[in-house]
Design brief:
Strand order of the largest sheet: 1-2-10-7-8-9
Order of helices and strands: HEHEHHEHEHEHEHEHEHHEHHEH
Number of helices: 14
Shape: globular
Radius of gyration: 18 Å
Number of domains: 2
CATH class of the largest domain: Alpha Beta
Structural class: alpha/beta
CATH architecture of the largest domain: 3-Layer(aba) Sandwich
Helix content: 40-55%
Oligomer: single chain
């Protein structure tokens, strides 16, 4: 599993390549939840989400033959943009398979960073097509979440939180595939075991919760949520191992609760957020996280990649 030394090494490797994002307090939302609430604004990260942390750390570990082969990934948008951006910075070619209904803004941004984008079917179809292309052209897979280097890179967020808020009590993390939760929890529990860490999934995309119940990765038959950044159809074995070792619990929120948190963050915190990035705050505001009254709570605002039309529709 990823060690604290691995995460510290990742921090050194990605320093200067990513932003150290701010920890923003929100008195209004904290009062509503009965706690001192802070948002870790990864929505202000390069490419608009936390994903570049893990991607840069993963690329540094690739050998020259793997780099020359070209990179491939499947993503609804945030991992796509992160890989396209990082590959461009490293002078590498990348191919990204995205679901046909992926956000137009995310697809265009991914192309803008230099990747070859393929829009293909549902999220399930996109995974299948990515595997076909990887085998056909011998591309190097950069997995969006179930990879130890990716997990270590995301764990740097946990170290930043401990530096900025040493007396933090609770950290709440949105979950798609689970790499972000795995990394943050690994960092926090190995550095400060008393801090509680919770994951948050949408009711309509609860792959991690299903995997925990089954004791192994489970592929969902259907994904249905407004939080496209959390719509992974399955979790992975590395993720399950880290979550079982380091995470206190994983809770569920509805799309209505995510939408409410999205509006609250926009109105009171004045930052643009996507539904996936609002999920952790949704769990706090909906009272899904136990024993937070009076506590110092950090919610991870994981991304801000949303096109204006979709944002307007969600807020209408």
């Amino acid at each position: 599993m990823v060690s604290l030394d691995d995460i510290r090494a990742a921090g050194e490797a990605i320093a200067g390549r990513v932003h150290r994002t701010p920890l923003l307090s929100s008195q209004a939302l904290g009062q509503r939840a009965g706690c001192s609430l802070y948002l870790k604004a990864e929505s202000l990260q390069k490419t608009g989400s936390f994903k570049v942390r893990g991607v840069f750390n993963t690329l540094r570990g690739l050998g020259e033959p793997q780099r020359r082969a070209g990179l491939i990934a499947v993503s609804a948008g945030n991992h796509a943009q992160a890989l396209a951006y990082a590959a461009g910075r490293e002078g590498l070619k990348s191919t990204i398979v995205m679901p046909a209904n992926a956000s137009r803004a995310k697809a265009e941004a991914t192309r803008g960073y230099g990747a070859h984008v393929i829009l293909h079917g549902t999220v399930f179809d996109a995974f299948t097509r990515m595997e076909e292309l990887r085998r056909e052209f011998d591309y190097t897979l950069v997995h969006p979440y179930d990879d130890e280097a990716m997990i270590a890179g995301h764990g740097t967020i946990g170290l930043e939180i401990l530096e900025d808020l040493p007396d933090v009590d609770v950290i709440v993390v949105p979950v798609g595939g689970g790499g972000l939760l795995s990394g943050i929890a690994a960092a926090i529990k190995q550095a400060r075991p008393g801090v509680r860490v919770y994951g948050v999934e949408p009711v309509g995309a609860a792959a991690l919760s299903e995997g925990r119940r089954a004791g192994k990765p489970v592929r969902l038959e259907k994904v249905d949520t407004i939080a496209d950044g959390l719509a992974a159809p399955a979790t992975g074995s590395h993720v399950l191992e880290h979550v079982n070792a380091f995470v206190d619990d994983v809770v569920l929120v509805t799309d209505a609760e995510i939408r409410d948190a999205l509006r609250a963050i926009l109105e009171r915190c004045k930052i643009v957020i996507e539904p996936a990035g609002a999920a952790a705050t949704a769990a706090v505001l909906a009272d899904r996280i136990p024993a937070i009254r009076g506590a110092r709570v950090v919610a991870i605002a994981s991304g801000g990649n949303i096109d204006p039309a979709k944002l307007a529709a969600l807020l209408s």
